């Protein structure tokens, strides 16, 4: 068998595999939204900040994911599904008020760090979502917003006894 026929067979095999992959369904439905549990809806957050945080964070870190057209095409659909599932497991702003204060405090610290160090939004996300490419000013404003949320918790001003008491109350 010559090289040309091998390449043709390999190409047909790959094409067949891609077509078969399209038959594997990927769930793109969002869980129900309870605005009372969401960070942005349950607090007095300006419309401008809501838009900024939603644009940069909510597709992967909330129950308000907007799936683009290419989320219907395998294998991209599998990759996106995996990213969103992992993002929600790590941090889901839509269930923010179900988190314990200690988790909120730790998560906010992480949010501040990854935004300030330009680790989030992911580069792979911003390639296809140019509106999520944050300027230095936008990064500072989002980090400041998260810092305000830390202060609103009042967690760090407490002593160890007060922390333990609050944690025991939540159990």
- The backbone outline, from C-alpha atoms, is elongated
Which structural class fits the helix and strand makeup? mainly alpha
| Main sheet properties | none
Q: Could you report the average pLDDT, rounded to the nearest whole number?
A: 86
Q: Number of helical segments?
A: 8
Strands, count = 0
Strand content: under 5%
Distance between the termini: 70 Å
What is the helix content? Answer: 55-70%
Query: Ranges with pLDDT <50 over ≥5 residues?
Result: none
What string, H for helix and E for strand, traces the elements in order? Answer: HHHHHHHH
Topology:
Blueprint: H1 3-21, H2 39-42, H3 47-58, H4 76-90, H5 101-116, H6 123-128, H7 136-153, H8 160-170
Helix pairs in contact: 5-7
Your description of this structure?
- This protein has 171 residues and is mainly α.
- Helices cover 59% and strands 0% of the residues.
- The chain is built from eight helices and no strands.
- α5 (101-116) packs antiparallel against α7.
- The longest helix has 19 residues, at 3-21.
- The protein is elongated, with a radius of gyration of 21 Å.
- The protein starts with a helix and ends with a helix.
Quick summary:
By secondary structure, the protein is an all-alpha fold.
Q: Features of this protein?
A:
single chain; mainly alpha; 8 helices; 0% strand; elongated
């Amino acid at each position: 068998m010559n090289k040309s026929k091998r390449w043709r067979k390999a190409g047909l095999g790959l094409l067949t595999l891609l077509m078969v992959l399209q038959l594997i369904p990927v769930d793109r439905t969002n869980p129900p939204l309870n605005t009372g549990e969401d960070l942005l809806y349950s607090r007095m957050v300006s419309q401008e900040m809501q838009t900024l945080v939603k644009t940069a964070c909510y597709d992967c870190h909330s129950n308000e994911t907007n799936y683009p057209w290419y989320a219907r095409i395998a294998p991209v659909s599998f990759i996106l599904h995996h990213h969103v599932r992992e993002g929600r497991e790590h941090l889901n702003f839509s269930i923010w008020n179900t988190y314990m204060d200690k988790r909120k405090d730790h998560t906010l610290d992480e949010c501040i760090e990854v935004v300030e160090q330009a680790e989030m939004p992911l580069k792979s996300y911003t390639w296809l979502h140019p509106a999520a490419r944050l300027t230095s000013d936008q990064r500072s404003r989002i980090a400041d917003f998260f810092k305000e949320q830390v202060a609103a918790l009042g967690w760090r001003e407490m002593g160890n006894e007060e922390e333990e008491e609050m944690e025991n109350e939540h159990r």
